[in-house]
Specification:
The protein has 134 residues and is an alpha+beta fold. Helix content is 25%, strand content 36%.
């Protein structure tokens, strides 16, 4: 399964929790694992607090401080900071599924991390059902 994510800004965290949950509900068959994978070198995926939108802003602020846009990078395409941020955050997440629901903490959400937008991106979703449920 694949979901498409459209970013609007250069750097952005987009909450995709409900979209992933919809795919899990329609395909999981009980419990197991949900693997999320971002096949882009300038984007990532993470799990963090989704209740307070300022958390997303704080994460982006710190990433932009750690990896500034101008720093004498040698990559000719001009998007080296996006590659570095994607490496720091990571390209996949593995989430447990119980009773057709993602097992996330009360405040947790799944975020697509855009570091070189705006763009149209993909998130691959693989549902692995538990053998105990078979």
């Amino acid at each position: 399964m694949i979901i498409t994510v459209n970013s609007k800004d250069r750097t952005e965290l987009i909450d995709i929790t409900s979209r992933v949950q919809d795919k899990v509900r329609s395909a999981s068959g009980g419990s197991g694992l949900c693997m999320l994978y971002v096949p882009h070198t300038t984007a990532a995926i993470t799990i963090n607090e989704s209740a307070d939108p300022s958390v997303k802003d704080d994460i982006l602020m710190v990433l932009n401080q750690i990896v500034p846009w101008e720093a004498g990078y040698r990559h000719l395409e001009g998007n080296s900071p996006a590659h570095v941020k994607a490496t720091i955050v990571g390209s996949s997440e593995l989430i447990a599924i119980e009773h057709d629901r993602l097992v996330l903490g009360t405040w947790q959400g799944i975020f697509f991390c855009e570091f070189d937008g705006p763009r149209t991106r993909k998130v691959h979703i693989k549902i692995m059902s538990s053998l105990a449920d078979a």
